[in-house]
């Protein structure tokens, strides 16, 4: 398989297992390029990409922009806070106006689930979902799985696995409001991993067990079960009611700290998609420990997004 089976990246559910392997193998090549003295390649020199963010973002927007510039694409950045959206312009009008400027690809974050699907049905450009409401964040799911794959490769003397059979991954925290959780669940299961979710009962969606994942409300039980723990932040900006008494109480019952990690008697891979609320869902001595691959996740985000952009543009060979 030398090209993706999809024209847009909207949901991990749309990807085949072969697509995942192709993205990971392409990201391997781009990671080598990113470690060279000259980190730029002319792979997308004739492609124009619009980054359209209707929600605030720092890490994802910068990661995409850096990936695009490393590939030599022309980049247009759009923020709804300083645009005609404030004057009542519709999503479709906004994007059509940008496309009239001959844009080839659109990277979009939007507060409404399904916004990227809507766009893909109305415009000709390739669409990449950079997060739609509480639905999905596919490139985050990809980079998280890629980071696990890379870490397992290091543990196996450089031989990265082709699947995650036998791997157990716990996703801990605010599952209800997280688009990262759903993308991770779909991606990890396609690769053969077992997935468990853990958090307060009020932050675990009722439908989650229908996705084939385990559920526990005991943080120590989750950590003893898993080989890797992806720890999510509490998304207070998406909560219009209180789902737990206080952040202090959340940290007491569901926070991951060094004392808790030491008590489980084994090393596990510690992950976090960021931004980190230190002292709430994770303490600094865990986030900065030797078990943590949080900074590797950030680095891998650029390589994965380069791979996705490159493959969706229909390119066959890395320059």
Explain this structure to me?
The mean pLDDT is 91. This protein has helices spanning 17-34, 59-70, 91-99, 115-120, 138-155, 179-190, 219-225, 247-254, 258-263, 284-287, 294-312; strands spanning 48-53, 74-79, 105-110, 126-132, 168-172, 194-198, 214-216, 228-231, 269-271. 43% of the residues are buried. Helix 2 crosses helix 11 (294-312) and helix 5 (138-155) packs across helix 6. The chain is of the alpha/beta class and 319 residues long. The strands form 2 sheets. Strands 7-6-5-8-9 form a 5-stranded parallel beta sheet, sandwiched between helices. Strands 2-1-3-4 form a 4-stranded parallel beta sheet. It has 2 domains: 12-136 and 299-312, Aspartate/ornithine carbamoyltransferase (Rossmann fold), CATH 3.40.50.1370; 138-293, Aspartate/ornithine carbamoyltransferase (Rossmann fold, 3-Layer(aba) Sandwich). Strand 5, helix 6 (179-190) and strand 6 (194-198) form a beta-alpha-beta unit.
């Amino acid at each position: 398989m030398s090209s993706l089976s999809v024209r847009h990246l909207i949901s991990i559910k749309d990807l085949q297992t072969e697509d995942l392997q192709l993205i990971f193998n392409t990201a391997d090549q781009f990671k080598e390029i990113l470690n060279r003295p000259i980190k730029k390649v002319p792979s997308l020199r004739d492609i124009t990409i619009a980054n359209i963010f209707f929600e605030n973002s720092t890490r994802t927007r910068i990661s995409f922009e850096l990936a695009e510039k490393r590939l030599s694409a022309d980049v247009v950045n759009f923020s709804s806070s300083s645009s005609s959206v404030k004057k009542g312009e519709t999503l479709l009008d906004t994007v059509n106006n940008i496309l009239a400027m001959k844009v080839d690809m659109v990277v979009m974050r939007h507060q409404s689930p399904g916004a990227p699907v809507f766009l893909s049905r109305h415009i000709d450009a390739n669409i990449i979902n950079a997060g739609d409401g509480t639905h999905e964040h596919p490139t985050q799911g990809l980079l998280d799985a890629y980071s696990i794959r890379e870490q397992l490769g290091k543990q196996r003397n450089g031989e990265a696995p082709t699947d995650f059979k036998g791997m157990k991954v716990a996703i801990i925290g605010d599952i209800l409001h997280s688009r990262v959780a759903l993308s991770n669940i779909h991606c990890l299961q396609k690769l053969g991993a077992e997935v468990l979710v853990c958090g307060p009962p009020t932050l675990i969606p009722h439908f989650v067990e229908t996705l084939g994942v385990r559920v526990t409300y005991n943080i120590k039980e989750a950590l003893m079960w898993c080989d890797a723990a992806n720890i999510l932040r509490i998304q207070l900006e998406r909560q219009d009611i209180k789902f737990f008494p206080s952040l202090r109480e959340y940290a007491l019952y569901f926070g991951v700290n060094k004392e808790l990690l030491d008590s489980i008697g084994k090393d596990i891979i510690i992950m976090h998609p960021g931004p980190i609320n230190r002292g709430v869902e994770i303490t600094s001595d865990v986030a900065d420990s030797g078990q943590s691959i949080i900074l590797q996740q950030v680095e891998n985000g650029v390589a994965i997004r380069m791979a996705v952009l490159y493959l969706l543009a229909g390119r066959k060979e890395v320059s």
